[in-house]
Amino acid sequence: MTETKHTTPTSKQIFAEEMHFGRVALNLGFITEEELERALGAREELHAAGVDTLIGDIMLDRQLLTSAQCEQILTEQDRLLREAGLLSRVRAAPTIGLVVAGMVPVLSHMSLSSVLTWSGALLIGFAISNRSPWRWVGIGWLASIIAPGTSMASIGSSGSLLHGWRRPLGAVLLGTCLALIPLPETLHQAGPLFLLAAVVLALFRKPPTKKNTQDKNHKGEQA
Amino acid sequence: MSLFTGPLIHSGKTNRMMMTLVLVSLTPALIAAVLHYGFTAALLVICALAGTWLTELVLDRQHAFDGSALVTGLLFALLLPVSAPWWLAFLGGVLATGLGKHAFGGLGCNLFNPAALSRVILMALIPGAWFVSTAVTMDGITTASPLARESSMLAPTLAELLSGSTPGTLGQAAPLAVLAGGLLLASLRTIDWRIPLTFLAAVAFLALLLPASERIAGHAPWLLGNPLIHIIGGGTLLAAFFMLTDPVTAPFAPVGRIIFAIIAALAMMLIRYYTPYPDGAVLAILIANACVPLIDRFTLELGAAPRIKTPQSF
Amino acid sequence: MTPYDAIFLALLASRCINRPQQWWLVVLAPLLSFVIGSLEPLGRLTEPLTALFAVALAPRWAPVGLLLVVPEYSSLTESIVAAAAWFLLDALFGSLLKRVNEDAVTPHLRGWPIQLLILGVLYYSFLPLVWI
């Protein structure tokens, strides 16, 4: 029995195919299969003649697309890239909020009592508050009255960055560890901590896959 | 409509050809350093080259033989003080290629000059390995440098600076050799002459123009109004001809490149005049590199014709 | 916390929250902090007032404003330099992120790790600002 060669395209290849300008234009219903074939043929001819042209330009020249449609296609490409994690303008990212909040005590050179107040304020604050910065200013004020010398801006900034219950807990653990573990003096600055955080995130990060993206889209459609 | 602007026309020079030219033009400086400092300098160069090349081999076998890793390694070695330990040279080489180049996507994708980035980060993270004395500076010079001979109040003579008899990095052993290599590159059009010319002119102009700070007037008054010392001393020449001219980390447009060189000169002179760092050339390179996307944005929007950007990195 | 560290922490925080329309008002936070701090009659009200103003500048960007008022600015010049440095570095950081070729970056470094790396490099590059 001869072993058949596995020819199923990889998820990366499928994604690359979907990302093509022409394919996106087709999916959006701006052009037909026939028009796409013609444009690709024209590009091949130009390429053979030594002229490399973008498929978008050919479609524009032949008035298959308008400038507005081109813009829309590029926006859609951008969205697909973002969803796949290739362009990562991640907003309201909870992990980074946790990292920033966790760095506050060590960079503020907080004393042990201040770290405890900061931790307590964050944990108690989350029991009674949400991400509203006004409430966090109030919580910070209360904490600084109870324990003078505690910076209420530190508590306010940390609290308003976090949400849920896992993140504040994580930030408290990270902040306490960083502040209490005797780190070398060169690590008591934001720069080295950023580099360290980058290495840790890179090591423990699960790169986004096509399957995850598809699942997410499917869930979105169902919703 | 946003379009991809990246290299659309071939300049006619391959990466390997350009890297070979850069290596050849760096050779006089390398030979001068080895002759001046002896076996220690040779060991540092070998370790730095091993660090960059082995990292390149592991991370990107395809480009391991195009010479870019060797150029990065050699430049990093020339930024080292002779007192640096061998492992620092190796580690710096690894960091330059791994973090400076491949973390950003490899050849042609880096935002900062890899050699400068590696040196600045290592200087900050393990200053103890760079300095024999307790005084922490960003220059890697342990005793009096041509630009920080503060205790003696004596200005280094021109002969001292040119012969490399003042302590400094390997690249400062023979400024004339660096200059010769740089001029060779400029004459062969491997680098854009606008960058070194503008940078050196701006350094000279600022040396005459900038008002003295208390620190510099009290400790090294001879640095004031003395453009030649600022051009020959420190890492100015190496930065001007070999590091700022890296096409990947320089702006596209000619106008942008002039602005870029002025920013680098301004940053370096401000650091020399108003901060405790005696040199600042390496930091100035990184600061200028960081400004490149903004410079490109403004100069290209103003309609300046973009130049071809060849995918290489020193 | 030093003003320099606060600037960089605020830069990172600003990247994980949507940018409001009036984001640039946050630049005023260091100046406000110094001005309110220098008003002697306020006494113990200084800190809460500073925090309230920092939030009021851009409520959606409150963490950024609050981080910028954590340090104590010793002079007006220092607060102006801090504000200018934050504004400049925000523009530089944003433009550098746009320049990153995300397709070329290894998947493990894409996104936040590469942003943190860039921020780390910027931190060391602009460190001489501390003395100016």
Quick structural gist:
The complex is a heterotrimer of chains A (223), B (314) and C (132). By secondary structure, chain A is mostly helical. Chain A is built from 12 helices and no strands.
Distance between the termini of chain B: 33 Å
pLDDT below 50 for ≥5 consecutive residues: which ranges of chain B? Answer: 1-10, 132-146, 148-152, 304-313
Q: Count of helices of chain C?
A: 6
Multimeric state: heterotrimer
Rg for CA atoms of chain C: 16 Å
Number of domains of chain C: 1
CATH topology label of chain B: Ammonium transporter fold
**By helix and strand content of chain C, what is the structural category?**
mainly alpha
Q: What is the global morphology of chain B? A: globular
Helix content of chain B: 55-70%
User: Helix count of chain B?
Assistant: 13
Order of helices and strands of chain B: HHHHHHHHHHHHH
- Give the N-to-C terminal Cα separation of chain C: 18 Å
What is the global morphology of chain C?
elongated
Order of helices and strands of chain C: HHHHHH
Strand content of chain C: under 5%
Mean pLDDT across all residues of chain B, rounded?
80
Number of strands of chain C: 0
Task: Identify the most extensive interface between protein chains.
Answer: A-C, 50 and 45 residues
Overall description:
The complex is a heterotrimer of chains A (223), B (314) and C (132). Chain A has 223 residues and is mainly α. Chain A folds into two domains: 11-83, no CATH class; 94-204, no CATH class. Chain A is 69% helix and 0% strand. In chain A, helix 6 packs antiparallel against helix 9 (152-161) and helix 7 (112-128) crosses helix 8 (133-146). Chain B has one domain (15-301): Ammonium transporter fold (Orthogonal Bundle), CATH 1.10.3430. The longest helix of chain B is centred in the first third of the chain and has 23 residues, at 15-37. Chain B is mainly α and 314 residues long. In chain C, 60% of the residues lie in helices and 0% in strands. Chain C contains six helices and no strands. Chain C has one domain (3-131). Chain C has helices at residues 3-14, 28-37, 46-57, 62-68, 76-99, 112-125. Chains in contact: A-B, A-C, B-C. Chains A and C meet through helix 6, helix 8, helix 9 and helix 11 of A and helix 1, helix 3, helix 4 and helix 6 of C.
Task: Give the helix/strand layout.
The complex is a heterotrimer of chains A (223), B (314) and C (132).
Chain A: H1 11-19, H2 21-27, H3 33-48, H4 55-61, H5 67-83, H6 94-107, H7 112-128, H8 133-146, H9 152-161, H10 166-180, H11 190-204, H12 210-222
Helix pairs in contact in A: 6-9, 6-10, 7-8, 7-9, 7-10, 8-9
Chain B: H1 15-37, H2 39-59, H3 68-78, H4 86-101, H5 114-125, H6 158-163, H7 175-187, H8 194-209, H9 214-219, H10 227-232, H11 236-243, H12 254-274, H13 281-301
Helix pairs in contact in B: 1-2, 1-3, 1-7, 2-3, 2-4, 3-4, 3-5, 4-5, 5-13, 7-11, 8-11, 8-12, 12-13
Chain C: H1 3-14, H2 28-37, H3 46-57, H4 62-68, H5 76-99, H6 112-125
Helix pairs in contact in C: 1-4, 1-5, 2-3, 2-5, 3-4, 5-6
